[in-house]
Amino acid sequence: NSAAPGTTGGFTNVVIEGNTVTGNGSTDVGSMGIRLLGKTVSTTIQFNTIEAVETGIRSMAYNSHITAAADFTVAYNHFANTSYAVDWQGTDTMSATCNWWNGISGPTDATNNPGGLGEAYIGNVEFTPWMIYDTDASVNTGWQLPISFTVTPPGDVSAAENDFTTLDNAIACA
Predict the structure, then answer these.
(1) pLDDT tens digit string along 31-75?
(2) According to the 3-state scheme, what is the secondary structure of the chain?
(3) CA 36 to CA 150: how far, in whole Å?
(4) How many helices (H) and strands (E) does the chain have?
(5) Cα 94 from chain centroid (whole Å)
(6) Which is more confident, 73 or 9?
(7) Residue 90 in contact with residue 123, Cβ under 8 Å?
(8) How far apart are CA 34 and CA 86, in angstroms?
(9) I need a surface site. Which of 64, 65, 106, 141 has the fewest CB within 10 A?
C-alpha cells in the first residue's frame, strides 16, 4: 500500500502478544505501555502484562485516521498500577473483554460498573466479561492463563462483585 503508515491501514494483521511492559509508576505522566497512532487493520493485543504506566493501551487518531473498533481486539491482558488501563479515543465501542483489571470486581466505572475497584478506562469500552483471577505461575514472558482455578463466590459485596457476576465472568472468560 502506498499510504503512509497509520493513515489508511498501512499496518495490517498487527499482533502484540506475550509482552511484559513495566514503567516507573502510574504517576509517570504521559507514560504508555502500548500506543497505536493512526489506523491499523486486524489488530490483536493479548496475553500481555502492562503495569506501572499512566496508560496501559492507547489508540488515538493520526491525521483524522483511527483504527475502527471492529478491527481491534484487546483480551487476556493483565493491567496493574495504571491511571487508565485502556484509553480508546475512537467514537465506536471497542471490545476489551476477558482482561484482568487488577480487581475481581472489574474496572472502576461508577456508571457502567458500580462497585468496580480495578483499573479505570477512557472511552467507549466494552469490558464485560472480565477475568476474575490474577494467577500466572508460568515463567514465560507476558501473562499466561491458568490451567485451572477455583472460583469462590464472594457474596454480595457490590453490584460489580457478587456471586452472579463472579461466576458469570469465570465461565465467559474460561
Answers:
(1) 999 998 888 888 899 999 999 999 999 988 777 777 777 888 999
(2) CCCCCCCCCCEECCEEECCEEECCCCCCCCCEEEEEECCEECEEEECCEEECCCEEEEEECECCECCCHHHEEEECCEEECCCEEEEECCCCCEECCCCECCCCCCEEECCCECCCCEEEEECCEECCCCCCCCCCCCCCCCCCCCCCCCCCCCCCCCCCCCHHHHHHHHHHCC
(3) 36
(4) 1, 15
(5) 10
(6) 73
(7) yes
(8) 10
(9) 64
- Sign (positive or negative) of CA dihedral 100, 103, 104, 108: negative
> By three-state DSSP, how is residue 144 classified?
coil
What whole-number distance in Å separates Cα of residue 2 and Cα of residue 4? 7
Q: Using the 8-state DSSP alphabet, how is residue 102 labeled? A: S
Burial label for 84, CB within 10 Å (0-12, 13-18, 19+), is: buried
| pTM for this entry | 0.81
Which residues, listed in sequence order, are joined to residue 15 by a DSSP beta bridge? 44
Cβ neighbours, 10 Å, residue 2: 5
> Would you state the cell numbers that stand for residue 20, as one nine-digit string?
511484559
Q: What is the CA radius of gyration of the chain?
A: 16
Provide the CA 84 distance to its chain's centre, in angstroms: 9
Task: Please return the burial class of 61, using the count of CB atoms within 10 Å of its CB with bins 0-12, 13-18 and 19+.
Answer: middle
